């Protein structure tokens, strides 16, 4: 069944590219000019698109699919199609590494992203959103249950913002031309209205006793935590951040 929005996609990729120095703007020119529409027309749904605030030559983005079968069909249609053939050399010339990719599905229970920024007639804002991606690797059953259950609730309450979350899709990668990373992972995405809101949330999370307990249990289970601090691109379809004016 087709999906019309990234938030509804049961299959998701988190793609993290290391680019050549000063390659980010050139890739965005090609990506936004030609490759976004090409992927959407092939059946994919793009989500948030970001620049790493601490490593400006790094591009982080999400895309989704209606199923594993539709993923294979969409990737074949795009990568063997005219848009990619016309612009692949320019895109590939900006990249050092494009193989840091996680193949994901919704958690149980699901924690879907909010509607994208600018959706529903809200229009753009003057704020500079800050996005945070947590990636927990070497996840075991107990850690997945903790993060997707009580840990998710603690995380949202401490941050004061919705947290979208996905887990590893265990199905075989049926498009091996684009490799995905092995192992079990949990990925969370949180978007803040601006730097001030993010810093306040980070302070609350650091001081939250419930979250400290979660971190200790994850450490004991051997889970490895990574955090990406991101800036949405102009065309990003990241979840709409919660406004402090609306949330009080």
From TrEMBL:
It comes from the Bacteria. This is NIPSNAP family protein. Residues 104-127, 229-248 are annotated as: Disordered. Residues 107-116 have a biased composition (Pro residues). Residues 237-248 have a biased composition (Basic residues). InterPro entries: Dimeric_a/b-barrel (IPR011008). It comes from Paractinoplanes aksuensis.
